Amino acid sequence: MKLTGREKSALFIEGVVTVILLLLLNLSVIVILNQAIQNNQALNDGIFQIKNAIAIGPNGFHLMSWQNIFTFFMLLFDTAVVYWRLIRRYHQMQLSHVIAELHYIADGHFEHRIPFKLSGDLQRVILSINALVDSTVQSMAEERKIENSKDELITNVSHDIRTPLTSIIGYLGLIEENQYKSNKQLLQYAHIAFDKAKQMQSLVEDLFEYTKVRQTTTPLTISQLDMGQMLEQIAASFELEAHKKNMQISVDYRPNPLIMSADAEKLSRVFNNLISNALKYGTGGHHIYLSAIAHGQEVVIKVANDGKPIPHNALTQLFDRFYRVEESRSTATGGTGLGLAIAQSIVSLHDGEIYATSEQHLTSFVIRLPLQHGEKLPARTTK
Fold it and tell me: What pairs with residue 294 in β-bridges?
């Protein structure tokens, strides 16, 4: 830390004034002691006898006069006092610089950090201040990100609700104004309004589920379950729908039984979403593969299909809420764009991870979960 010219002058004046005061004090003490010794013959004789008693050498070299000895020790004392006063003043100047830097940061310059390299406790204070500013900036950035995320959520929800709501109001308005030619057309209008209402209901339910599972305090009903049997049951529930789309669902798991602890109801929601997506978007595919294999303290579950691959640049965005690979956001394939976001949140609640891979002939959604809930998931190895 560099001192300003004014501070250097103040430090110099501080040293000069201190030296002058100490010299005056020393002189005063010497004069007082000298007069006391001269006025007290017994004290003078005692000092002379002490000098003779500790004479040194064959020639009887005597110690220096008491004034010289006193002066020597007083110089040592004066030097210590001057150093203490100057270093104390210097530390005060350092502290004032730190306070000025702190005020500069507090005025809104959060990109600034205190650059001084000091010693002792003051350096620890500087490091603590810089760490606190870093933490504050990070918290502010996260808060802005959350606010932007909320705004984006509101925008997307408003967009997805407004479209079916406009259709509902439009067709019900035609019915209300008797703008139909026959009962058949009336039923057609009512049917369209009903479908749009169900679409809105699906969005609201998914939104409610998403916000619920996004909360880290969401309770899980943990129990022991056989993952292989769960996949078998879920595959059976989709058998009819898969048959209509000329697709087959196969299940493979190891070991048998594959016992783990998890919330069965929430995990079934994950698998339902993934299989539904495979049926809706696996264009040209004929197979859906469900597999669960235990590796050490984790289980790796895959939901794969041999349909049309997902573009590579879309893989990292699949789990963003309201994101859909198709840009039209049509209702032909259904979906609210929240299914994969919900799946990711449920997997996170189980301390696991989910990601997607897509090659020319196989698209896979991979879920890694600890076998026993509460255990740390091993690090993923990448090839």
Answer: 299
Side-chain half-sphere of 336: how many Cα atoms within 13 Å? 27
How far apart are the C-alpha atoms of 374 and 121, rounded to whole Å?
A: 41
Give every CB contact of residue 242 below 8 A, 6+ residues apart in sequence.
248, 249, 279, 288
The Cβ-side half-sphere exposure at 241, using a 13 Å CA radius, reads 13
What pTM did the predictor assign? 0.57
Q: How many CB atoms lie within 10 A of CB 290?
A: 24
CATH number of the CATH domain containing 179: 1.10.287.130
Residues 34 and 110 in one domain: yes
Amino acid identity, position 77: F
Mean residue pLDDT of the chain comes to 82
Q: Give yes or no: residues 208 and 233 share one domain.
A: no
Cβ partners under 8 Å of residue 314, min gap 6: 325
DSSP-derived letter for residue 286 is -
pLDDT band, very low/low/confident/very high, at 368 (cuts 50, 70, 90): very high
Give the confidence band of 33 by pLDDT, cuts at 50, 70, 90: confident
Residue 250 φ then ψ, to 5°: -120, 150
The predicted-structure confidence for 81-105, as pLDDT tens digits, reads as follows: 999 999 888 888 888 888 888 899 8
137 pLDDT more than 60: yes
Q: Which domain-ending residue is among 214, 234, 260?
A: 214
131 half-sphere exposure, CB direction, 13 A CA radius? 6
The count of domains in the chain is 3
